[in-house]
Amino acid sequence: MSRPMKYLVIHCTATPEGREVSSADIRHWHCDPVSKGGRGWKQVGYTDLIHLDGSVERLVKNNEDANVDDWEVTNGASGYNSVSRHIVYAGGCDKSGKPKDTRTAAQKEALKRYVRDFHERFPWIRIVGHHELNPGKACPSFDVPAWLREIGIRQ
Angle at CA 15, nearest 5°, toward 109 and 125? Predict the structure, then answer.
């Protein structure tokens, strides 16, 4: 089944500033059984991961169209996964674990390129921070609507 995409959701890994995160880390956190420290999900929460150096790693294949097919669904925002694509940057917390915008200059540039390209291809799809869909969460630890205006995207 395929559903029209409604959201691009921006996330952080909620890890300390300066700590790199691998795709294996994310797969462990999300897909390993609870008994092994994971959440027991059948799929990770994000389509793409932005590393500290700004490189973008594909975690879940997709066909790059404006629909979410069943095989493309990731588990990023409860209640919205079947109509969303999710991107995450490594970081989002200070050294003590409190929410903080820890994006490196390279991550900011990579995220800007990613989001501008996405918006150019799909201008009707709403770009949001995870906390906008699931209130009570700090993720992605920065004000997405203000940042979108800053990079020239009006929604």
Answer: 50
The model's pTM: 0.95
Rounded Cα–Cα distance for residues 21 and 41 (Å): 19
User: Domain for residue 22, yes or no?
Assistant: yes
CATH number at residue 51: 3.40.80.10
* Domain range enclosing 117: 2-150
Please give the tally of structural domains in the chain: 1
Residue 155 lies in a domain: no
- pLDDT tens string, the chain, 155 residues long: the values are 899 999 999 999 999 999 999 999 999 999 999 999 999 999 999 999 999 999 999 999 999 999 999 999 998 898 999 999 999 999 999 999 999 999 999 999 999 999 999 999 999 999 999 999 998 899 999 999 999 999 999 88
